[in-house]
Amino acid sequence: MNVTTTGNAPRERRVPTLVMACVGVFVAYLPVTTVSASLPAIQRALNTSTAQLSWVSVAFVLPMAALILTAGVFGDVHGRKKVFQAGLAFSGLGALIALCAQSIEVVWAGQAFAGLGAAALLPTTLALISHAVPDPRERGKFIGVWATSLIAALAFGPVIAGVILDHFTWRWLYLLPVPASLLALVVSTKLLTDSRAPGTRRLDWPGQLTSALAITALVYGIIEGGANSFTDTKVMLALFTAVVASVAFVLVERHSSSPMLDLTLFRSPSFTATALIAMISFLGLIGFFFALSLYFGVVQQLSTLESAWRLLMVCIVPLVLGVPMGRLVHRVSPRVLITGGLLLAAVSLLSLTTIGANTSFGSLAWRLALLGLGVSFVLTPMTATAVSSVPFHQAGMAAAANNAFRQLGAALGPAVLGTLLSSRAVDALPGHLTAAGLDGATVRRVTETADAGGLSAVGRLRLGADTPHVLGALSQAFIDSLQLCLIAAAVLTLLAAAVGFVLLRRPRQSAPSAAGPAASAQGPGTPDQPTADIRTAAGPQATAPR
């Protein structure tokens, strides 16, 4: 069986491992932006309500956020290559189901399978890299390329969606992941070396069940509360369940002999910082992208492809700087890189509060590029620091945890900022309609439409000569709410910067050890002092794959 528990992967295996990891993360993240950019087309084709449409994205995000930690454990116990290949299979199957969908419920099913695949791919791609490149200094370069692939999927997803929607139906969005997943699955059989976590780690079913329940209940409660009311019985029950399940998870993990998430990892200030930064910053940034895409569609009336070119400005800089940033990770303090990047992102978000309905692409471009510069200083160092700030044998667990916190923030971002955006716009709309000179009956009709179907439903109203005035009032109300969302996103980003400034520190690397079993008996080192040589963690008896 081609499984190893050491970090002594042959050097010639490193490049193939990196290639497969990049393909995996690209396949995992591609549905995030391609589908999000295509929601209006899906709504028109399947004649769905706004509530039904919102669950298209949620059906993908929920299993991804809830099962990332579980997938990391399965990889550590049963082999990361196997879980990686299972992730590719689920991603391809999910895309195939959605490709054949004739109803919104089948699209949900396809999205759920694709989310399950992403949950398997994200932690295992990082764990495979950590296994192949045990030296944290050299690993940073590889993680830089990995992060570039992630950004590439987010960047080109809307462009791919725009091109497809200009020439074909929305179903063809799901065609590309099918052959991509199948081809990667076949190629990985030859190129990848399997690995497991050293030691006797076992599956932690109580921890897996309580964590999945906590995350699912929290995301569901936030989304449904924003769409309806937080005083709704089912919403309050979901949030109460999330609290109870979270407490149960902590208690279970504290007493587990083989925890899914070793809570002692949080003794490392750097690991704690990266977890909090991942959740807080992605909550603000993904929420911002959600609001900005609505701005392009509702206010500026741009097509999917026109919006995609504008959103691409955020991703251009991280794409260019991804690999060089990986080389800076162990030359410049993570505190400087991550905190500085978050401050740049906050400045960019605040500068966007001055945009209006007719703001030109040129005026937006430099602000979005500045945001991309800030993101490029955060993503790679944050991921590399999370993995390097823990003992080597817990790298898979750290990668899974960092991804879980990031996806939790990404899931909550559109829900939290989307709720803020919608409620503020609906509240401001009557005033702008009245200021536009519309009569009371028209104001009531438009307001009731906004309450029932959201802002997009107002944009589809046809009221004869009053239509331009209604659209103008809608734009002004949306801009009022967008400014509030931008301020909220900037505050969240500044909060993440404060966390980084206080908690981040450069991990102290221990010298390579040739002590063999003695070193192994002493354990793999304390948090923030990871073992640089895998012999310290595994002992000389561990051998490379044959």
TrEMBL record:
It is a multi-pass membrane protein. Signal peptide: none annotated. It is found in: Cell membrane. InterPro entries: MFS (IPR011701), MFS_dom (IPR020846), MFS_trans_sf (IPR036259). It holds the Pfam family MFS_1. Residues 17-508 form the Major facilitator superfamily (MFS) profile domain. Its main location: membrane. Keywords: Antibiotic resistance, Membrane, Transmembrane, Transmembrane helix, Transport. Residues 511-525 have a biased composition (Low complexity). Residues 511-546 are annotated as: Disordered. The chain crosses the membrane at residues 18-42, 54-74, 86-104, 110-130, 142-165, 171-193, 235-252, 273-296, 308-329, 336-358, 364-387, 481-504. Coiled coil: none annotated. It comes from the Bacteria. This is Major facilitator superfamily (MFS) profile domain-containing protein. It comes from Streptomyces graminofaciens. The lineage of its organism: Bacteria, Bacillati, Actinomycetota, Actinomycetes, Kitasatosporales.
